[in-house]
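can u pls check wat happens w/ fructose -6-phosphate
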Amino acid sequence: MELIVTDNYQALSQIGAEMIAGVIRAQPDAAVVLPTGDTPMGMYRELAERKRRGELDASNLRVFQLDEYLGITPDDPRSLYGWLARSLFEPLGIPDANVVRLPGDAEDQVAACRAYDQVVEAAGGFDLVVLGLGPNGHLGFNEPPADSHAPTRLVDLSEASIESSARYWGDKNLVPCQAVTAGMVQLLGARRILLVVSGAHKREILHQTIAGPVTPNVPSSYLQRVSNITVIADRDAWPSKRDE
Ligand code: F6R
């Protein structure tokens, strides 16, 4: 595991964006997973800036949705697909046809999740998975306890995740109680993983992720077992000894 500690969120965003841009330049049609959440937004703004300057062409990228709330249509203001469309697909010029959705509004969730996993398999797995870190160690919406072999599936959201998502939508009651998430086995099997973590509120869970026991109770701790992972954390999330 490679750990890069930056002085602040801006530096984290720049380094993360450069890493993602490097993958896109090397393999323009890479199969990638990109998260929503607050943490990656700075990277997405950096990537959009590179596109505006004519330095990046992401139009052939294949994006797989990481997670979605259950029962939410793409035009619902809370849709995670909609969030990605606004913050990433539109600014980077990634066509809808290149995005594999996790349809939270599908009638048959079991079939929809199986279909998603089949597309992932047909693509030969993920080239790059970018992840944020949940307050309870969730990856996507793989809530604790999570098996490292868990496939893409419907999950009940934990209280911690509902509380954490409430800040996106302003009220806990607006957060659906269930979601679909890309599976642990698909995420952990990626050829490259980038985990981005910012803020003092992530300090404890980041420590457990990197230095704690590998346990289903902290799904992110499975990342210790993969060799192809870079963690970018800002100093607030990973203080140096003297700051602790
Ligand atoms: C979002 C997602 C979540 C977030 C995590 C951290 O698509 O899958 O796992 O990455 O909850 O969220 P932020 O970055 O808002 O702290």
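DSSP finds seven helices and ten strands in the chain.
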